[in-house]
Amino acid sequence: PHVHTHPSAAKLKNPVAASAASIEAGRKLYEEHCADCHGNTGKGDGYEGEGLDEKPSDFTDSEWEHGSTDGEMFVVIRDGAGRKSEMKGFGKRLTTRQIWSVVNFVRTLAPKNSH
């Protein structure tokens, strides 16, 4: 897959500390809104993702095609993964703080040495 970055999004700083409470809140939101496609452990193997044209992102590998900064992850969750993607944004369903907590949780799924 083609990796691209979003410089303006990459400048966004995560205002929510990656505390145990934030990560737990993010985990619950992830299970409710993300796991059906991205899988319970973030491997992109959720049952809803099987029939999609584009395989959902695997958060456990080292290649993140939409950028790997907190800001880039935030923007993809808020706005969706692009016009051609079947992943639509969650900006109308989740608060800004909730999205940052999901970012904090997704960080725990990634290999420790890659991001």
What kind of assembly state do the chains in view correspond to?
Answer: single chain
Major sheet size, sense and barrel closure: none
General form: globular
Low-confidence stretches: none
Number of helices: 5
- What fraction of the residues are assigned to beta strands by DSSP? under 5%
The H/E string reads HHHHH
Cα-atom radius of gyration: 13 Å
Provide the helix percentage. Answer: 40-55%
Number of E-type strands: 0
First-residue to last-residue Cα separation: 18 Å
**Broad structural category:** mainly alpha
Mean of residue pLDDT?
91
Plain-language structure description:
This protein is mostly helical and 115 residues long. It is 40% helix and 0% strand. It is globular, with a radius of gyration of 13 Å. It starts with 6 loop residues before the first helix and ends in a 6-residue tail after the last helix.
In short:
By secondary structure, the chain is mainly α.
Please describe the structure with a list of short key phrases separated by commas or semicolons.
115 residues; mainly alpha; 5 helices
